[in-house]
Structure formats: C-alpha cells, structure tokens
Predict the 3D structure of the following.
Amino acid sequence: MTAASPEYLTCSMSDNFTETRTVELKTVCECNELLNNKTLHPQIAIIDLNDTCVIGKYLKLGLYTVILVEKPGKSCSCGCKCYDFSFAVMLFLAPGAKFMWNSMETLPGTGTMLLFHPDFLRNTSLGHDMGNYSFFLYDREEALHLSERETFVAKTCLASIGEELHHAIDGHSEVILSRQIELLLDYCARFYERQFIMRTDCDGNLTGKMKLLLQNALQSAKFTGCLPVPAYFASALGMSEAYFRDLLKFETGKTFEEFCNAVLML
C-alpha cells in the first residue's frame, strides 16, 4: 500500500479552513489536556468523544489517529453510499492531518478516538508494517462504514487497548499495546476489503475504467513517451491516490505499474 499527502479531514458539511483557528497538537499529553482526558501513557491515548468540549476548531495532530463514531448523522456521512453499512464510521488520520471539530455532528453521538505517537512505533513490529495500513491516507469520502458486528469487533479492540493503558507501565507494555493496535488495524483492513467487494459489485469495476483511461492517455500528445502518474488516474476517478492503488490491487491482484505493463503488452 502506498502513501499520499494527508488532507483536511472533517465530517462537517463545510471544508473552510482558517489558519488562526487551528490548534496544533504534537503530543498525546497536549491532546489529553485539550480534550479533558487523563494521561495514562505518554504516547498512547483512548478518548471518549462524549466527554470532549472543543468546538469550532481545526485540530492538527502530530499523531496517528483512529476515530470511531457510532450511528453518525447525515452530515457525518463521510462518503457513505446506499450499499454501505451505516451503523458506524471509522476515520484514519496520518500525522499532520487536520480535521474540524464542531457542533454540527462532526463527531456526534457515541464515539471513541485512539491516538498514538509515531515514536511509539519505532522499536515495534507495527512500526515496520505501518505502511501496510494506507487507509490512514484515504480521503474522508473513503471512510470505513461498519456493520453492527464489525462495530462490536472494533469497540472490543479499543476497549482492550484502554484496559491495558490502565495497567502500570512495565517491560511488557510496549509489545502488548503495539500488538493490540496492530490487531485493530488488521481487522480494519479486513473490513475495508469487504467494503471494496460491496462497492465493486454495485458501482462497476475499476479495471474497465482504467483500461479506457490508459488507452486515452496513450493516444494523447500530452503523454507522448511516458505514462501518467497514479495521481492522474486517481484524480480522474475521483479517488485519493492511496485508495486508488489499493482498490486496483484488490480488483486485479496487480500494482499500478504491473497493471499498466500488462495492458501495454496486449
């Protein structure tokens, strides 16, 4: 899975961004202080969204962030389609991403937020495999929409992380916490594959669209002697580059480069 530039992430209807309203948070302790949460570990936090009190600000976090919102309202649809589940939505933010926190159902109802600092991953297997979870670089319209059963699994994983955070930090904490986070992300990767299947069945396949775009590009003087970069095709299809690459690999079993080479050999 591949990387892309983080976008402003908000579930509100407006994406207007005002630099002066941005609150930049670089550490878990800063996030806990702002969001009225007790610090149990300096590099990881689980925050109950019901207890937050920050309204009308953009947050820029220097942390990996996972947000689970149960039964989101219409303004928190985050790209939900008629063939997606709607029991809960999950958003994944890479360090440096921004999102809006307001009273217009940005993070409404019942929800949980997991934060972990990139430095925590340094000596863990999760740090080595973090590139496999490219959904941290998806656009908000490509959020994960969960069934009731999937929501239960995600909440169980988050609860396990929260329980471990209440344990005194010792020589086992780093391994246990990193494996629990990795388990959550592995489940989310599985749920995204299920979502890919449902969207492919209902929204047409990507392979045919890609072949047509590739043929048109080859016939265009603009791309004489070279092929467009993946971002070109992703933009043409209304996707983030990370989502485009993952969906193409899921549908065809090939990377972008492998797919293009296969088409050119026909």
About this structure: The chain has a mean pLDDT of 84. Residues 139 and 249 are 18 Å apart (CA to CA). The helical segments are 28-34, 125-129, 148-165, 173-203, 206-219, 230-236, 241-252, 256-264. The two ends are 26 Å apart (CA to CA).
